[in-house]
Amino acid sequence: LNYSGIDSIVDNKVEYHRIVVPRGGEYNLKLADGTDVWMFADSEIRFPTRFKGNKREVYLEGEAYFEVEKDSLHPFIVKTKLAHIHVLGTSFNVNATDSSCVTTLVEGCVRMKKDDKDSVIIVPGEQASIMVGKEFNVAVVDTRYSIAWKENKFAFRDVGLKNILNEVMSWYGQTVYIRDSDLEKIRYTTIVTKYPSIERVLDILAAVGDFRYIKDDKGVIIIIKR
Fold first, then answer.
1. Side-chain half-sphere CA neighbours of 102 within 13 A
2. How many Å apart are CA 141 and CA 48, to the nearest integer?
3. Which helix (H) or strand (E) holds 201?
4. Residue pLDDT, tens place only, 157-167
């Protein structure tokens, strides 16, 4: 969906649109100012068809990756329930829920604000996060794991098998059953392409884990490899 090609900054009343991306889906949006937005599954964005006044504001619930068009006179602001992310021109990922907000910076510089008195500035390769009732936390991270989804890949960094399978199965619209609870303790740090076939993804995970799988008409059953 492309909103560019019309006047991006106006002073009169503008119309807001909303895009909701369901589970198992992704969406690419170009805003009126030329900013590219990649929406992750189970996410929602609200934005004006044209930006009004001296700033560019959008509202996000869920996860999205932004490549913001530079405009020093009109700062770009991503508003979430817990924090606002202020930028001029940069590339970054935001994952926002009711209880947390995580911003990972790939390029440029952003300020993440909770209110006028509490804010942090991060540089490329850093991740700022905040949870309900807590202060900001800033850490150096491998940004590949935060933006892999944009490149049609699953990315997991020290994640348990149960959480991994829930994400993978949600993407392919499948149901998973883990027969042996000990398997849930297996942890992965890996990046896997979202192949058209779910079997290909499971084969890769099973190759480095101590499990095998069986598919039937009810879903996928995970069992210990013997």
1. 14
2. 32
3. helix 198-208
4. 999 988 898 88
Residues of the chain with pLDDT under 50: none
Whole-angstrom Cα distance, residue 207 to residue 130?
36
pLDDT in tens, 86-122: 997 899 999 999 999 999 999 999 999 987 678 999 9
**Structure tokens that stand for 173 in this block:** 């619209």
| Integer Cα distance of 205 and 184 in angstroms | 13
Both tokens of 195, joined, read 């192949």
Sign of CA dihedral 89, 90, 95, 100: negative
C-alpha 11/C-alpha 14 separation (Å) is 8
Structural contact between residues 128 and 102, judged by C-beta atoms closer than 8 angstroms = yes
The owner of tokens 């700062």 is 75
The whole-angstrom separation of Cα 65 and Cα 93 is 4
Residues linked to residue 222 through DSSP beta bridges, in sequence order: 178, 213
Given a contact cutoff of 8 angstroms between Cβ atoms, the answer to whether 40 and 21 are in contact is yes
CA–CA distance, 189 with 212 (Å, rounded to integer): 19
pLDDT confidence of residue 216: 82
Compute the distance between CA of residue 136 and CA of residue 12 in angstroms, rounded to an integer.
36
Kindly state the helix (H) or strand (E) to which residue 111 belongs, with its residue range.
strand 110-113
Res 141: pLDDT: 95
pLDDT at 10: 55
**What size, in residues, is the chain?**
226
Q: Confirm if 37 and 45 have CB atoms less than 8 A apart.
A: yes
- Round to whole Å and give the CA distance between 175 and 165: 9
